[in-house]
Amino acid sequence: MSHMKTESKRATIYLYPELHHALRLKSVETNRSISDMVNEAVQLSLAEDAEDLEAISNRAKEPNLVFEDVVKDLKRRGKI
């Protein structure tokens, strides 16, 4: 993940006390700032969203299957 400290924007977020405590502990143990850890978590989450959107886009080209037809086909082929 790239660090963009010079381009960083300040934001106020509110964390559950337990999460804040865990982040503070992890910050000390890993010698990383809470901001760096939150930035990385947000980047990872957005990357997962991008992958999901790409998969949806790729699947949009697939034909729609009617559930009833699929079940009938499985039964006809002796799969159920």
Largest sheet: none
Average per-residue pLDDT, rounded, comes to 91
What is the count of DSSP helices, taking H or I runs of 4+ residues?
3
So what's the oligomer here? single chain
Question: How many strands?
Answer: 0
**Poorly predicted regions:** none
- Protein structure class: mainly alpha
**From the alpha-carbon coordinates, what is the Rg to the nearest angstrom?**
23 Å
- Report the portion of residues in β strands: under 5%
* N-to-C series of helices and strands: HHH
Give a written overview of the molecule.
The longest helix has 26 residues, at 34-59. The chain is elongated. Helices cover 62% and strands 0% of the residues. The relative contact order is 0.08. The protein is an all-alpha fold and 80 residues long. The mean pLDDT is 91. The termini are far apart. The chain has three helices and no strands.
Sum up the structure in keywords.
80 residues; mainly alpha
Task: Give the structure's gist in a few sentences.
With 80 residues, the protein is mostly helical. Helix content is 62%, strand content 0%. The longest helix has 26 residues, at 34-59.
List the helices and strands and how they pair.
Layout: H1 17-30, H2 34-59, H3 67-76
